[in-house]
Amino acid sequence: MRGLINEIYLDDLREKTHRGLAGQLARGGHAGGRAYGYRSVRDGDISRLEVVPEQAEVIRWIYTRYAEGWSCQRVAADLNARGVKSGFGGTWAVSALYGSPNKGSGVLNNELYIGRLIWNRSQYVKDPDTGKRTRIDRPRDEWHIEERPELQIVSHSLWLAVRERMARPTRQGGNAGKGARPRSLFGGLLKCGICGGAVVATSGRHYGCAARKDRGPAVCAGVQANRQKVDQRLLYAIREELLSPSAIAELQETVKEVLAARRREAAELAQAARARIAELDSEIARLVDAVATVGISPALTARLQQAEAERERVTAEQDSNVPGGAVIDALQRYRKLLADLEQSLSTDTDRAREILRRMIAPAEMVAREGQVFVEIETGRAAIAVGLSLGLVAGAGLEPATFGL
Ligand SMILES: [Zn+2]
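# zinc ion complex -> structure
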């Protein structure tokens, strides 16, 4: 029922949005959403797009360089170095340039630059349950395409030159057949010590600052380190740290503390339960006496049943208050986590990453005196592991620095 109502609601909303846009477009307006290179101007009750000459220059420059064989990285870096602002006033990133040819996103794929206004490609609809806006892609035959020569910025030959380069295989300088890079172990788990952004696998051989890679040195000077070395040394350091006698001793200490606290708690609960059972026993005895003296009555029967039911419940609860095995096997689970890590390192990178993420959460990659370091608060590692075992571990270890 609820699903059906949602369906109807979404259809209705789509219909309304659609009609509103169609009306705007029929009168020469635009469908909302402003692309780089245009400004929106009010014209009576509709808004029209207008070319911004300086931005149109930038677009032609981007198309020309890309068609000549520049990489999107180089284009973005050059724009940022010259202080050219992107559409939202920020810096240029590769994604803003290349985007997705299928979705028509990214500067190099926007057909508006050849004067072709496409709308109804996708629509954002609001889910009435979650309030979230979701993008729905429409099939190509539902697209609405309009020619708007006054909005053309890039010549058809330049547009085609860019298409031609995109279709070329990667090794010939194009983007076709570019597969997803194999996942790296620590990419995204480290952050750049300069800009605080993500450190990712910038190539098959290196980890580096993502901002530096996508936006160029004008945005972040960046750090870079050999992937193989980082993987090896960081894993070594993590193993050493987690299996060090002091880490094990600390974990054991914590387990002992938690166990002791649970036992104390259980003892208190048991004592309270015993006291309550004694009370109930004497109450039941009094009630039985009363029945013997004055005979059975509905009120006495009800009270007796109530007291007996509570006695049963308290007794059952008392048995379940005995400390269980959950904490006792914490050390075993700790060892298992490490064993899992060892095993998944060679077989399942995603699983290994997940384990590592919990262990090293905020590790920073910093460059200092010509060296790159990854800084991890080892106390954190103990906390992260502790939490994953359901323990709250206090940690006060010194931060450790591992040279790379
Ligand atoms: Zn950075």
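# post-check
The chain is about 50% helix and 15% strand.
Residues 41-172 form a domain with the Hect, E3 ligase catalytic domain fold fold (CATH 3.90.1750.20).
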